[in-house]
Amino acid sequence: MSSAVHHDIQAHPLTFNTIYKQYYKRAIAFVKSYIHDDLATEDIVSEAMISVWKNIDLNRKEGITAYLLCVLKSRTLDYLRCRKRELQMKEDVEVWMNREVEYQTEALESCTTDGIFKQEILDIAKNTLETLPEKTRLVFEMSRNEALTHREIADKLGVSEKAVQYHITRALKALHKTLRNYLPIFLFLFGA
Description:
Number of domains: 2
Distance between the termini: 70 Å
Radius of gyration: 33 Å
Low-confidence stretches: 1-6
Helix content: over 70%
Largest sheet: none
Structural class: mainly alpha
Mean pLDDT: 83
Strand content: under 5%
């Protein structure tokens, strides 16, 4: 506003009190009719009234109502948009969690003892390991089949322990991907 005058609360306490007394209840009712949250309503109205009081030309009373309504509308819309984003994110998380629970339920239901045989899992794991680079497969087999420590594998292959850890992690990720439905049983049966 070109005629806006910035005010000091101490310099114009009565004017602020006048605006507050005249508009506070209406402002609360207006905002509350949209957001139904007492604390947020109080915050929006308080901030809006201070903004109006600081920026309005107090000598022109006819503009205060319209200006306050614009500020209240703007801040209420900001709050509602923010709340909508929060609720959407919460809903997205819930949808993902429901899918994950559904997936885990299906995976566990498909893992019946009479439907899954140790050899089937071994075949899937073996096929997966065969697709890996030779060194990764070798490190993983030394770790699991020969029960060697990372240090022992590193010494035998002339690599660092960090490299051993990398290859084991790489193999486990590949197994996790192909055995996703069977992984808990695989870990149980083979102690991987």
